[in-house]
Specification:
5-stranded mixed β-sheet
Length: 118
């Protein structure tokens, strides 16, 4: 299936500001620069611009790359809570991705930890 991010085992946020005019090749170059390795098929890479109202996701598939793009509606005037440390690539969990896409911070100190044995 094209653009199936559910197959990813790793989720990386490329923190700081990304020029959202970049396409697949430009985002690929950013991953190479920050991680010093090619994007792999088991990871997705997230990018966010200065306005924090849009996110791009780079996904590698067996036959090429897919670029997913999410822009919040202008009437909602919401913002993604994006980490801005420009020298960092942050690995996050699926729960943190859900928080991020819901407009929350990726660090939720009051969130309950679910025991693994349930």
């Amino acid at each position: 299936m094209i653009g199936d991010i559910s197959l990813a085992t790793n989720i990386y946020i490329i923190t700081g500001f990304t020029d959202m005019r970049k396409s697949i090749d430009g985002l690929y170059a950013l991953v190479m620069d920050k991680l010093h390795e090619e994007p792999d098929r088991f990871s997705i890479y997230l990018f966010c611009g200065r306005r924090s109202d849009r996110i791009k996701i780079l996904l590698r598939e067996s036959d090429g790359y897919v670029l997913l793009y999410k822009r919040l509606n202008a009437d909602v005037q919401g913002r993604f809570r994006w980490p801005r440390n420009t020298s960092e690539v942050k690995s996050i969990t699926w729960q943190q991705l859900d928080w991020l896409m819901s407009g929350l911070e990726i660090e939720q100190p009051k969130a309950l930890k679910i025991p693994q044995n349930l």
